[in-house]
From TrEMBL:
Gene3D superfamilies: B-lactam Antibiotic, Isopenicillin N Synthase, Chain (2.60.120.330). It holds the Pfam family 2OG-FeII_Oxy. This is Fe2OG dioxygenase domain-containing protein. It comes from the Eukaryota. Residues 41-143 form the Fe2OG dioxygenase domain.
Amino acid sequence: MNNISETVQAYSKKASKLNEVIVRMVFDSYGVDKYESHNESTNYLLRLLKYGEPTENETEVGLPPHEDMSFITILCQNHVNGLEIKTKDGDWIGFELTSPSSFIVMASDALTVWSIDSVRSCTHRVVMSGKATRYTAGLFSFSSKILHVPEKLIDQQHPLKYKPLDHVDYVDYFFSKHLGPRPDCRYKAYCGI
Ligand SMILES: O=C(O)CCC(=O)C(=O)O
Ligand SMILES: [Fe+2]
């Protein structure tokens, strides 16, 4: 009989393989060949979320706007939509996932640092409006090593803007050490030059 931890384990394993493929595609597209060592030093966090259907008096239930601190995030949801992404112009756009085997892949903070801002950490939120419960499984990938911007990506048009990112300490810093107000941009505050 399958229990929840076995299911979560099996799902994480499969989703982490998808993560590896996506990272490889990103590295390939920049002509950077270090994806194997990156993938080998990747740790994962799986978060399972349940959003209850809003009651009559509630309008804005869900998750407030934020960026994830991971390298990338892979989301899988049930049939209840609600995720919204902020565009460069500041508009919010929703997603209609039609297939249960669809995934949403979002760039997160560490990818922005790695790519010197060419891939932007995606600002997103969850707004619940329908009459059903939303379930999400989010797989967040983190580097267990210090993340360096590949030399290949640094040139006159793209000068280095970030110090090497200690990804584990980055997360730890904003979850347990930094007790003041949250800066506008966490990665710039943490490792911006
Ligand atoms: O539930 C979702 O679709 C988004 C979850 C999310 O943004 C998060 O857990 O960081
Ligand atoms: Fe998120």
